[in-house]
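User: Before I run my own analysis I want an independent prediction to cross-check against. Here's the chain; please return only the C-alpha cells and, at the end, one sentence I can use as a sanity check.
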Amino acid sequence: MLCKKGCLEIDKFHKFTKTVINFRNIKMYYALGTTVDPVKIDDPNCQAAFISESNETQLKAAHLKLISFMRRKLRLEMNSFAHTPKLDAPPINVLISAKVEKFDEKSFRFFLTTFEGKTPNILSEYFDKLVVNIGDQHFEWTRNIEGLELDGVEFILKNPSFPIKVSYALYPDFPVSYFIVPDDLRAITKSNYDCLAKIVKSVSHYAETQQLIEGNTLTCDNALKSAFNLETIPLNQLPMEVRSHLLPLHPIVANFVIDKDKPRHNINVKLPDFKYLPQSDSPLFSNDILAELTKFAELKENIELLSAIARNPFEAIEAEIAGHASYCELSDEANDKGPCISVDQMNPARRSTPFYWQAWTSDYAARFLEENKQIHSRYPSKK
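Assistant: C-alpha cells:
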C-alpha cells in the first residue's frame, strides 16, 4: 500500500475490484472488471443501478452463505462417522487473551483474542457467542455467518474506573459438535465429553463385545438400561437415541480483575483438532447457478463499499485497510526523502480486529500528515 502525492491505492486482491481514492479532492471512482472508464459515485444512473439490485443481492448472498455454512457443518458431521480415527489427533493448545488498553482520552478498548500457531480464526470457528461484563458495562458478540472470520473481538469502554472486574462466558460451537457425556455413559465411553460419532461407536463397540447385538437389535444390559431406560434399541436408531441423552458443552468462563499495571489476563485451553478430517466438498450448485450467485455476492460487496464511501470517505479508507492490509507504508514524494512511515506485519490475531486496525490506521495516518506538514514548513513556498 503506497500513498503518493495524496493518492491512496487499495488493492483488494480481487481480480474484479480496485478502489482508488484521492485524498485532496475526495473524488472517488470504482472500477469493475475490465471497465476502462471509471464508474463515478455521483453518477445518478450508477447509483440507481446499484440500489435496484441491492435487495436481491443481499438476499441471495445471505442465502448462499447460510446454505454453505449449514452444508459444511453437515458434511463434517458425516465425515466424523466415516473417518472417526482422524478425530483422535492431539488437541490444539489455544491461548485466550483478554486485554485492556487506552483508546482515547476518555475511553479504553477491551480485546479478547485467541492464538494458536497454525490454526486461524479460532474464535469464529470454535465459538458462536461471547458474553462479557466489564465493571458495570455489558457486551455480547454473536457469530454471524455473513461476517468476517475472526480470532479476536473488541469492545469500547467509556470512562472505566480501575481496577476493573471482568467476567466472560465463551460458548463453544465446534466445526463438529461436541457434547458432555452423562454419568451413566462415561463408564462405557471412557470420556467426559466427545463428538457424537465417537460416542456412538463406543456404545456400539461395548454392545458388540458384550454380545448384546442380534440382527438389527441391541438388547440393553444393566449399564445400558441405566443410561437409556430401554430394553432394546434398533441399531439404525442408536445415533438418535444416544444424541437425545447428551448434554451441550459448558461455556468457558473466566473471572478476573484488570488494572493499568496488569492489563492482560490469559488462560490456556485445549480444543479438538479437525484438520485431518476430510474437508473436501462437492459443489452445492451447478456452475451457472454458482456463477450467478457469486456475481450477486460481488455486487453486494461493491454496494456496501460505495455506501460506506458516500457516508464517510475517510472511514471507508480505514475499513478497507482494516480488512485487507498486513503491511502499511505511507510516503510522500514531494521531497527527495519525504516523511515515511513503515510498519511491519502485525500479529494476525490482532490484525483481525477491525476496530483495532481502524484506530491503528488513523493514528499512523495522522502522524504521517503531521510530519508531512512540519517538513514542508521548513522549505520556502514557490511563488
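Sanity check: The first strand starts at residue 2 and ends at 4.
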